[in-house]
Amino acid sequence: MANYTAPLDDIRFLLHDWLNITEHYKKYGYEEAADKELIDAILEEGAKFSQEVLAPINQSGDEEGCKIDGHQVTTPTGFKEAYQQYCDNGWPSLSAEPEYGGQGLPYSLSSVLSEMVSSANMSWGMYPGLSQGVIEALSAHGSDEQKQRYLPDLVSGNWTGTMCLTEPHCGSDLGILRTKAEPSGNDIYSITGTKIFISAGEHDLAENIIHLVLARLPDAPEGTKGISLFIVPKFKVSDTGITDQRNSVYCGSIEHKMGIKASATAVLNFDAAEGILIGEPNKGLNYMFTMMNAARLGTAQQGQALNEVSYQGALAYAKERTQMRALSGPKAPEQAADPIIVHPDVRRMLLTQKAFAEGNRALAYYTAMLVDTEQRADGERKKKAFKELSFLTPICKAFMTEMGHETTNLGMQILGGHGYISEWGLEQYARDVRIAQIYEGTNGIQALDLLGRKVLMDKLATLRRIQKKMKYTIKDLSADKELKDMSGDLKTLIRKWFMLTLNIARKAGKDREEVGAAAFDYLMYSGYIYVGFIWLQLAAAARKKHPESDLAKSKLATCKFYFARLLPRVKTHAANIKSGASNLMDIDENLF
């Protein structure tokens, strides 16, 4: 059975040595959080909860799965008790507003806990996972009355939340959704329709479930401009709190899935359910994006988190498993064979896991800091943080989940036959993480969002600004002789990145299919370069803060591996982009 140990040393290095997190918190008014001892105490307690409470029920939860009886869903053994302890410890309220019972700590600190929870038990983490997005959506767009009625119990964890978008006939194309909202008086609407793939849509962990539902009013315009957002609670909520009156939203079934089997992915049937409009009519999709962006960052982190725990399992196995001798001669002559970590191909796989686990963790934490800034800054600084965050969100979601899929498969490969059987736990990580490339907008849609909206529609303005900042940083890093050559290589790639973007823009002016043909490779190209930029910074920070330490040696060696063996993948992505749309679009569909 695989074990999980929270990588606290690397987490502390990122927060304190690289990001200088306490100064960041002081700058944006998080005075209470600007205390290294408090931060480290939160990290220790989060690690303890993840390792001792969640990890032990991960594999058993996968084997047992959820059960449905009528409309009621039961979670696996131990899940309910773990959720109660999670609430008792105050974890749901960590970054919520004090006005509604929250602790008022930064989003970036809560995101570290999210990583540990996902590594320890991704299925369990799905239940409280979307509640934070519901809280953010209501905080940003709900009325004062709605906030007072729903936020305190969501913040405490007494209630959980969901995001209800997808329907049987439409996935990410929400412009054709059919769920109806009929006015029924007193600002109440009657919601009728079916939603599918609803994570944590029904369960036995919390007293109530607050569904945020996209639906159409009778006079709504066609397409995405005619979608409104409604609060539809499982149990109706009065002015004094929860009532025992069941709303007419019921779980029709739960999906039988490849992975995250302990997470109840529900089909929800709304049969004239009572709903309350959030904000203005026909603005629902705009409001939902507050929640969707939070969910995309959370999904990105799942890719990195499963990468991390798979790496831990594979590394432990590689150090203990003996097989064959090293090509250069025995390394453990007292044993019948050498540990497999001596073999170059095993090291290739382990270093790939390590490079993406640590590089993508750093990317996730940096992006989380941008969320802090966007929430607390004013004026131009807020605007710049929003733009950079918007640019990096699709990269995080797609790149980190693609790498999560690759690296969990490498974890299985390192264990050989043992990786393929459930006893060791590595195959579960590969199954669980596979959904992350699909939900919250498939990675192809993230790629279209990046290239189409965040780059081309922005007329490359944000890309220029980010690349300018990267070049300034690289100039400073190149003073380190160990980083000089890699800094020069990255500077050249940044220039090529910009020229490649210009070429896509020119070709797209003649044929819009060029955007779709280039999008996925463009996102991956961007992701590899940005993580390379991060690795240079990590190696520099480790060498500056901890010279001659094992940490500094490890970061430098991994950075060199990344630049030598992983970053060159951009050449293939560039070639795919340059090949154009014709090799995809010219073939008649009947010839497939």
Topology:
Elements: H1 8-18, H2 21-27, H3 36-54, H4 58-64, E1 67-69, E2 72-74, H5 79-88, H6 107-120, H7 122-129, H8 131-141, H9 144-156, E3 159-164, E4 180-183, E5 188-199, E6 208-215, E7 228-233, E8 235-238, E9 241-246, E10 249-254, E11 265-277, H10 284-320, H11 344-376, H12 379-415, H13 417-420, H14 426-433, H15 443-456, H16 461-477, H17 484-510, H18 513-545, H19 550-566, H20 570-578, H21 582-585
Parallel strand pairs: 3-6
Antiparallel strand pairs: 1-2, 4-5, 5-11, 6-7, 7-11, 8-9, 10-11
Helix pairs in contact: 1-11, 1-18, 3-6, 6-7, 6-10, 6-11, 8-9, 8-10, 10-11, 10-12, 10-14, 11-12, 11-18, 11-19, 12-14, 12-15, 12-18, 15-18, 16-17, 16-18, 17-18, 18-19, 18-20
Key attributes of the depicted protein:
57% helix; seven-stranded mixed beta sheet; two-stranded antiparallel sheet; globular; 12% strand
Structure description:
This protein has 592 residues and is of the alpha+beta class. The protein has a domain at 444-583. The protein contains 21 helices and eleven strands. The strands form three sheets. Strands 3, 4, 5, 6, 7, 10 and 11 form a seven-stranded mixed sheet that branches. Strands 1-2 form a two-stranded antiparallel ribbon. A two-stranded antiparallel sheet has the order 8-9. A hairpin with a 2-residue loop joins β8 (235-238) and β9. α12 packs across α18 (513-545) and α15 (443-456) crosses α18. The longest helix is centred in the middle third of the chain and has 37 residues, at 284-320. It is globular and about 80 Å long. The two termini are 43 Å apart.
